[in-house]
Amino acid sequence: MILDFGDGFFLRQATAADRAALAMICLKTGDAGKDATDREDDPDLLGLVYTIPYQVFEPDLAFVVDGPTGVSGYLLGAADTNSFNARLATDWYPELQASVTDPGPDSTRWQGSDWARHRIHHPDLSVRQALVAYPSHGHIDLLPQARGKGIGRQAMAFLEQRLAASGSTGLCLEVMRRNIDALNFYRAVGFEVLQDVQPPKDCVYVAKRLASAQDVAG
Ligand SMILES: CC(C)(COP(=O)(O)OP(=O)(O)OC[C@H]1O[C@@H](n2cnc3c(N)ncnc32)[C@H](O)[C@@H]1OP(=O)(O)O)[C@@H](O)C(=O)NCCC(=O)NCCS
User: Which of 5, 115, 137, 163 has its CA 20 to 30 A from that of 210?
Assistant: First the structure.
């Protein structure tokens, strides 16, 4: 156990054995924080894009919230987004692309999980110079039974502290514009919406500067 949240919930390191749970939670929070199960025709793709690569390539920053009913959330980080994306480009997407059919560019013809299939074949792994002050990124998703108990606040503080200790100067996250609950959460825990950085479609960036270990020592 890394953090005890009370009520039987706790944070622990994610392992390879948690990959199915990471994918399940990603699906159940995949529609701007709500359950995307009915929308998707392949329940595994969201997890293969948004969660499992973190456990594979950043295992030291991959955590699950475990609890009375089993794994109820995750907290994932990438210390250096550019290096992480470079790794995805060479070691993750080529194999995944070989097992998934590209639905083509015409989004009006996409159905079910085609948007995810398209994303797998055309991932946006570009270097964003405007985010240079925030080299790290992360994801947090909790199932309903774990929400509203202060777990999100404590988990984010923990991730920030881990990243700062490793020398990161800033953390940013992509949030769906219509996920108002999450935007309120990020504001409550000290993140600001970046106004002058072009975010991916339908999203905003929320970001926070971190006091790196060097700053603290100095
Ligand atoms: C968003 C999420 C991570 C927040 O975690 P949480 O454990 O529910 O939040 P906490 O209980 O730690 O709340 C922390 C603060 O955020 C505020 N907050 C949380 N959810 C809020 C909401 N829906 N509206 C307004 N404020 C909210 C709380 O009031 C609290 O403020 P306080 O400490 O000053 O009282 C969690 O609810 C979740 O996983 N939701 C569904 C998935 C999702 O949307 N993930 C984010 C994708 S980008």
Answer: 5
